[in-house]
Amino acid sequence: MKKQEAAGYRCTVEATVAVAGGKWKPLIIYYLLSGTKRFGELRKLIGGVSQRSLTLQLRELETHGIVSREVFAEVPPRVEYSLTDIGLTLAPVLEAMKEWGDSYVIWQQASGRESGSE
């Protein structure tokens, strides 16, 4: 039995997608690469994400050890999110995704294809 099979994944790409994939998680990680953010900042940067969805995605990333959540004892309460050391190791993955996205947008424009937002 391979190590990844023991961990519940058929391959390590599946582990990456399970932890950092989805509609909002890559964007959350991407924006946290530039530093600590508050919830409202993330929501503005991402745009189009509901409070509930962002909260759930941040909790999942926290559970996986990718994001750290710090609560400050203030009124009103202040919560800040940052990437953990293991979360920072996703930087090359997100940079590769960004480079691919840049190339894809150029290809779309050159071929006259519509941009696809789902």
Structure explained in plain terms:
Helices cover 57% and strands 12% of the residues. By secondary structure, it is mostly helical. The protein is globular. The model has no long low-confidence stretch (mean pLDDT 91).
List the helices and strands and how they pair.
Layout: H1 3-6, H2 12-20, H3 25-32, E1 37-38, H4 39-46, H5 51-63, E2 67-72, E3 78-83, H6 85-88, H7 91-111
Antiparallel strand pairs: 1-3, 2-3
Order of helices and strands: HHHEHHEEHH
Low-confidence stretches at least 5 residues in length (pLDDT < 50)? none
- Share of residues in helices: 55-70%
Q: What portion of the residues fall into strands of 2 or more residues?
A: 5-15%
The biggest beta sheet is recorded as: 3 strands, antiparallel
Coarse shape: globular
Number of helices: 7
Give the class from helix and strand content and strand pairing.
Answer: mainly alpha
Q: Could you give the distance between the termini? A: 39 Å
Number of strands: 3
In short:
By secondary structure, the chain is mainly alpha-helical.
Main traits of this protein?
single chain, 118 residues, mainly alpha, three-stranded antiparallel beta sheet, 7 helices, 12% strand, globular
